[in-house]
Amino acid sequence: MNLLLHFHLLVSAALLLSPSLAHDKFDSHVLPRPLSILEYQETPGILLSNELDREVRLLCDGWRFAVEANNLGPWKTVPSECAEYVREYVNGRGYGVDLEVVGKQGLEYAKGLALGGDGKDVWVFDVDETLLSNLPYYADHGYGLEAFNGLEFDKWLEKVKAPAIESSLKLYEELLRLGIKVFLLTGRSERHRSVTEENLRNAGYRNWDKLILRNLEDHGTTATVYKSKKRTEMVEEGYRIVGNSGDQWSDLLGASMSNRSFKLPNPMYYIS
After folding, report:
1. So which residues are the signal peptide here (predicted)?
2. What's the average model confidence in pLDDT over 57-64?
């Protein structure tokens, strides 16, 4: 059952159950005296609106949880009922806290690793919504309410203005200090290599060992297949993938998975 249907069912239930909406004149004596608080002159429409707002928020909480837990099937846009919810989340403290938790867990894990000492321990990072934030772009495109437009997004990439996700930058720098090599594995096209490198450096990222982008032969494959292939190539070259950070499950699942993966939150878009 979709969110909109839930919404309409709630309205119907409220109309059936609320005396103040079923009758023009409300008779408080129909109810037990302990509920006499209902005698206050509240506007029925406001009461119903508040109740619906709470219900929609709960439904959107459930939707976002399903997204992050990979329990939701492929989706193209944020449900219209959750547009404001997503806007508030990604611009609020909640999103920042969630990102910080992921970064701290990655730090704790990395500090406890027994490295091989041969330069073959690597950590794989996705780029968009993992190292760099495209929130300025999505703010102009409904925070995921609009269907993805590749041409418009390419224009944004070429502005090289995406800021760093601070918790990821902190993890990135600590990994280098610990002696773990960093490989960047992104779904961006090879033709955007120079602007991607420029943006990463502008945001504070330095000294990665590899930046892997999609070649012509990689276009047309899903992100899961493409990234699995590239991770398999790393393993065949003798590297040990000790960690992997990404905002999409397609960054993390598939072949040659890391010893441990870290999923960053992203309720704005889905990539298979």
Report:
1. 1-22
2. 96
